[in-house]
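Researcher: For the record, we're logging two predictions in this thread. I'll number them. Prediction 1 follows.
Model: Prediction 1, sequence and structure:
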Amino acid sequence: MVQKTLLITGCSSGIGYAAAHGMRARGWRVFASCRKAEDCATLMDEGFDSPLIDYTDTPSITSGLAVVLAKTGGTLDAVFNNGAHGIPGAVEDLPTDALRANFETNFFGVHELTRQVLPVMRAQGHGRIVQCSSVLGLVVLPWRGSYNATKFALEGLTDTLRVEMRGTPIDVILIEPGPITSMIRQKSIPHFEKWIDWKASPRAAQYKDYLLERLYRDTGPDTFELPPEAVVKKLAHALESARPRARYYVTTPTYISGFLRRILPTRALDWVVSRGSG
């Protein structure tokens, strides 16, 4: 059998790193991309092809994909758009330029890579595009407005693409994790420090009592938190099933949130998600 090929973004840690190792163990040829050269070098030392792809830099998306296609003879069976980051903070304290920057990584870069992959998949007559969304693409949580917005946008774009690709041999799939062990909280700190002037906020006391504690103090795993391998299990089904689902929930909070969104009035859902969130 010809070895199937998979491009994954955001592989320096967390879900992307686990997905690269997990799918390679299942027999896939994995191209494990990162946005930093030093992280690519680490993965190459582990035996991966690791093209440099930075969602905020369109030329790197084009050149990274070109590296993949040069090594596969111009084909690519699947892409897993995984890279993302957050900017914690209240919406009223979030500069518009910060929101733009977050969308560049979490949304516009994903869209660009997806658009560049589609002609390849059309030409070869098959393909799977898997987008890593979030429980925060289903329901919001306070203090995460920027991340919420990017994931809601990704959900809408992906749903539209899936409908538009009906009748083609290209499957478009969403994976919606909840709390997963990763470095996303730690990696959000530089973005918080760059963009959020919390001391000048009318919510300064709330930042002190809640958000700063959550960001800077290791309080252990969240309730219902699962290791990234839980996402890899769903990814494997999305990539290998003859009839993949449109959506894959991961973790108990995602299942609960999806259910509550369907049955509760908006104000009741607002009350639920605001509980325990500062």
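Researcher: Logged. Prediction 2.
Model: Prediction 2, sequence and structure:
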Amino acid sequence: MLVAAGTTLVDGRMLERVVADYEAERPEVTLSVVGAPTARVLALARAGSADVTITHDPREERRFSAEGRAALDVEVFSSKFILAGPGSAVRDLAGMGAPEAFGKIAEQGHLFVSRADGSGTYQTERRLWSQAGVDPTGRDWYVQTRQGMGLTLQVASQREAFVLVELSVFLAAEHVWGLVDARLDPAGLHNPYRAMVVKDSSVVEASEDFVKWLRSGAGRESVRRANQELYGFQVFVP
């Protein structure tokens, strides 16, 4: 079974722990996990190259499901985004709503590094810029990497810039020296993940079993245990 998942789940290492628990309970099943931006994950599913998708882009997920491509479509857990930035610049943003903070970054011309790669993280970033009434495209202070979260964080660290990042990836990264959580108001930074079984998969029954397991008592306990082992608290909430 091939599980195509958003890079945040792979980079943050949570999914590999949960998959290992599932395989231990189902030794006859082998899961392969591929991490990619949401747009790429759903393209793989449309091409018949994935059996299960786990993503965090509600608009694209609704579109995929509306096309009749999902045999099963459920939310499995959620996390949150944070705005990270250089310690010297984040203090003035603490407690702000995300759109207000984004507006202030634009007003003051602080460097901001964006993935710009079709990921769920990028779609959330775009929504927040829109809510702030700002189009950052082409601005001198707006840097687009068109790469994954790991490289984007590294660029933000090197350039002492702001970046929107899923909390687990930020906690797992070892190369974000100087970047700290701006501690914004969490409203609008909620990050739900949906699992979808691809209708045309050749292993629909097994794929549905995995997704249903994620929502079962055993699956939820696996998620909680992985959180505790990796981060020391519940980043992903079943």
